[in-house]
Write a structure and sequence with these properties.
The chain is an alpha/beta fold and 414 residues long. It has 18 helices and 14 strands. 41% of the residues lie in helices and 17% in strands. The strands form 3 sheets. Strands 9-10-11-12-14-13 form a 6-stranded mixed beta sheet, sandwiched between helices.
C-alpha cells in the first residue's frame, strides 16, 4: 500500500533548537494539523519513546497515578495529546526539577495551555511552546518561502507564478490540513472537515468545559465562518441563540483555545484617538470555513464578497504560519480609523518597523486600493517600511514610494 506523502514542516529547525537547551518542548496546534507526525519523526530520529493519551489504557494510567506514570517514563519520551491528562504537568515539573536535562520530553497538545493557567504555570521556565499550524502553501509546494524576507527588506521580485483565476477558490477550499490534501474531490474533503468538527465538539470541548448547550457550538462555528475577516460582533453571533453575550464570548474563547478561530487585534497608538479598537475574527483555516458554509468551488467563485473574506483569512493564516518559523519576532494587527480607512493586515517587526498588506481577489489594482495603506503610512511616519496590495496578477507593480501591487502567488513561490 502506497504511503501518504509527508510534507516538509519548516518549523522543524526551531523545534530542534528548543530541544537542545530546554527540558520540555510542547508542540501545540489544532487537531490533525500534523503535530503527532512531526513529533514521531523527530522522536524516531533522536531515540524517544512514544505514548499517546488518545490510547484509553495510557490515559487511565496517567490519570490514576500521574507521579508513578512519569517516574516510569524513559529518559526521552513523546507524550501525545497531553492536555487530556492535565494532572501530569505537576509531575513533569517535579521530574524536570530533579534532573534538569535538555530535551527530556516532547509534548503535543490540541488545546492552548497558555489559556489554562494551572497548566502553563506548572512548567513555566521549564518548557518552550512551539505553535504548529495546518500546512502552509509553501510547505504543500515544497518551496522555501521568501515573501516575508523580501517584504521586510524591500526587495520584492518582479514576477511570480502567474494568475490563479478559478483555481484560487479551489486552493482556499482545500485548506491546510494534511488529510484533505489526499482526498480527490471537494465532497470527500468537505465530509472530512464536517467529521472533524463533530469529533472536536464531542471530545475536546466536552473535556475542556461543562457546556449545557453543546449543540450550539457547531452552529456558532458556522456563523463565525460567515463572519471571518470581519470585525468581531458578538451581538450578531448571539442573536440566533437564546444565550447571553457573555456566554457566547465564553464559547468563542473555547473555540480559540482549541485553535479553530483566531482574533486579530487592532493596531493602536496612544497618540491617535480616532482608531477602531475592535479585533477581527478569523477562522483558523479556510478549508474548514468553506466546509462549514457548504461551499463548493463554483459557489465561491460566484460570491465575490465571500471569496474576498476567505481570501483575507487565507493570507492572514499563510503569513502567521510563515512567521512561526521566521528568524525575527513579528506581530500581527489590523488597522481601521473612524473615517473608514483600513488595512487588512499590519505586520510589526521588532516593535518599530511596519508593513501593511491589503488583500484583493481581482486581477487588477488601482490607485484607490492603496488609500488605507497611505493613511496608515501617514499615521506611523518613519516606522512605515512597505505597503503591499496582494492581487491575483503576475507582476510586482510600483505605486509610489514604498507601495507595490504583488501577486498572491508570491506568498509561496520562491
Amino acid at each position: 500500500m502506497k504511503k501518504p506523502p509527508i510534507f516538509p514542516r519548516y518549523i522543524r529547525p526551531r523545534l530542534l533548537e528548543a530541544l537542545a537547551d530546554t527540558p520540555a518542548v510542547l508542540i501545540h496546534g489544532p487537531r490533525q494539523c500534523g503535530k503527532t507526525t512531526l513529533a514521531q519523526l523527530i522522536g524516531e530520529e533522536l531515540g524517544y519513546r512514544y505514548f499517546t493519551f488518545d490510547d484509553a489504557a495510557v490515559l487511565a494510567a496517567a490519570r490514576e497515578d500521574p507521579v508513578g506514570f512519569v517516574a516510569r517514563l524513559p529518559e526521552r519520551s513523546v507524550l501525545d495529546e497531553v492536555q487530556r491528562a492535565p494532572a501530569l504537568f505537576a509531575s513533569l515539573k517535579r521530574a524536570i526539577d530533579q534532573e534538569r536535562k535538555a530535551g527530556r520530553f516532547i509534548l503535543t497538545g490540541s488545546a492552548n495551555v497558555l489559556l489554562v493557567p494551572q497548566l502553563s504555570d506548572s512548567l513555566a521556565g521549564r518548557m518552550e511552546i512551539v505553535r504548529l499550524y495546518p500546512l502552509a502553501q509553501c510547505e504543500l509546494a515544497g518551496k522555501e518561502p521568501t515573501f516575508l524576507d523580501e517584504l521586510l527588506a524591500g526587495t520584492l521580485k518582479l514576477s511570480h507564478d502567474g494568475r490563479l483565476g478559478a483555481a484560487l477558490a479551489e486552493r482556499l477550499l482545500k485548506g491546510g490540513y494534511p488529510e484533505p490534501q489526499r482526498r480527490p474531490t471537494w465532497r470527500r474533503r468537505r465530509d472530512w472537515y464536517r467529521e472533524y468538527v463533530e469529533t472536536i465538539v464531542q471530545r475536546d470541548i466536552r473535556e475542556l468545559a461543562r457546556i449545557s448547550r453543546l449543540q450550539a457550538i457547531p452552529r456558532l462555528l458556522k456563523l463565525a465562518a460567515g463572519q471571518s475577516a470581519r470585525l468581531l460582533n458578538v451581538s450578531d453571533l448571539a442573536s440566533p441563540f437564546q444565550l447571553s453575550r457573555p456566554t457566547i464570548r465564553d464559547y468563542l474563547g473555547l473555540l480559540e483555545q482549541i485553535f479553530l478561530i483566531d482574533f486579530l487585534p487592532p493596531w493602536h497608538s496612544n497618540r491617535i484617538k480616532r482608531l477602531v479598537k475592535t479585533p477581527k475574527l478569523h477562522l483558523g483555516d479556510t478549508g474548514l470555513a468553506g466546509a462549514l458554509l457548504g461551499l463548493d468551488v463554483a459557489q465561491l467563485n460566484e460570491d465575490r464578497g465571500l471569496l474576498g473574506q476567505l481570501l483575507e483569512t487565507f493570507v492572514y493564516g499563510e503569513l502567521k504560519r510563515q512567521a512561526s518559523w521566521h528568524k525575527t519576532d513579528l506581530g500581527f494587527y489590523h488597522f481601521r480609523d473612524k473615517d473608514g480607512y483600513e488595512v487588512d493586515l499590519v505586520i510589526q517587526q521588532d516593535g518599530r518597523r511596519f508593513a501593511g498588506i491589503e488583500v484583493k481577489a481581482a486581477s487588477t489594482v488601482t490607485e484607490r486600493d492603496f488609500r488605507g495603506l497611505r493613511r496608515f503610512r501617514d499615521v506611523v511616519g518613519k516606522g512605515f517600511h512597505a505597503g503591499v496590495v496582494l492581487y491575483d496578477g503576475e507582476h510586482v507593480l510600483p505605486f509610489g514610494e514604498g507601495m507595490h501591487a504583488v501577486p498572491l502567488s508570491a506568498l509561496w513561490s520562491s
